[in-house]
Amino acid sequence: MPLRAAKGFAARVTERADVARYRANLQGEIDGAALYRALAEAERRPQLAEVYGRLAATEERHAGHWEDQLRAAGASIPPPRPGWRTRALGWLARRFGAQVVLPTVASLERVDSRQYDTQVEARAAGLPGQERSHARLLQTIIGPGQGLEGSSLVRLEGRHRSVGGNALRAAVLGANDGLVSNLSLVMGVAGAQLSGRGILITGLAGLLAGAGSMALGEWLSVQSSRELYQREIQTEAEELAALPEEEEEELALIYRAKGLPEDQARALAGRLIANREEALDTLAREELGVDPEVLGGSAWEAAITSFLLFALGAVVPLAPFVFLTGLNAVAASLGASAVALFLIGAGITLLTRRGLVYTGVRQVLFGLAAAGLTFGIGRLIGVSLAG
Fold first, then answer.
1. Continuous H helices in the chain
2. What backbone torsions phi and psi does residue 112 show, to the nearest 5 degrees?
3. What is the pTM of this model?
4. What is the tens place of the pLDDT at every residue in 220-241?
5. At 160, phi and psi to the nearest 5?
């Protein structure tokens, strides 16, 4: 094929791919606008209905952008018909209320919020930042701070406690992981009839390996979150510098979603945007749900805490083998572990509000069942090796 013909063929392929992409983007914006219109119609609170209406208007402007791209490419524009999923979600919203479908809409928006990042035409029109703003705004609406309604009221009434309890939950589960894993390891080695010294060495190795693994995993998790938050804040700073009017509008929408009257929401957003540093701090807290000074906590603190909690649990079944040998050590290890498992179950009731005896006994049974299983496997292996 001659070079000129090859270049012409490649250009036509690229043009067809661009047209297909424009049409896909257009359909996505049509679906988004239809969903927000449905949410606006279904929403009983006027402030939120107005927010959804403005989001729909933005999606319609985005749709107009892709229609312009199709016209420039000489392609036909398909009729603005929402897809079946959008129609189904819209019907559910109108029939059962906006809150029923809002989490699904927020998930879809979150997934789609990055699709424009690599598209030159979208970036030139500022679409990526607006789509990410939509996703963050929906998360703000779903999350706390919507006024004294629904779950906020029952929390204030005190009849239902939040199951957050992140610090307590991490402490209980970290100690439980160390206890159950090392109890199972120690019982497996004891079942194989190794010496007390062999059990101690194996148990200590399991303690250090497990605690180290937990610490490293926690460090990576927290550090990755911190780096992600830092990148999101940097992106927010760039958008604030490039498009301050849109960020001001976004803040006003957030405060409208929280129940402020329009004039107060706009006045508050205007005062915040006037100070770039304060505006960035507020945007990080309101949109991203992040405290810029903390960024999710210290990775080293989380790692050290995880190491200590795991080790605290893991040392319980191992300690009797320091002073005892044989079946006496096994019995003491099982007894100490049973007591610790019951206490962990009692700690879990602080999170679940279930009965203390039920949860404690359940924890003991599960932990001892795991230990019995590994003891049996160890005994089989020990007999096989001895034979």
1. 3-42, 46-72, 84-96, 98-112, 120-124, 127-142, 151-157, 166-191, 196-242, 244-257, 262-274, 276-283, 299-318, 320-323, 326-352, 356-386
2. -85, -10
3. 0.54
4. 888 888 887 788 788 777 777 7
5. -130, 120
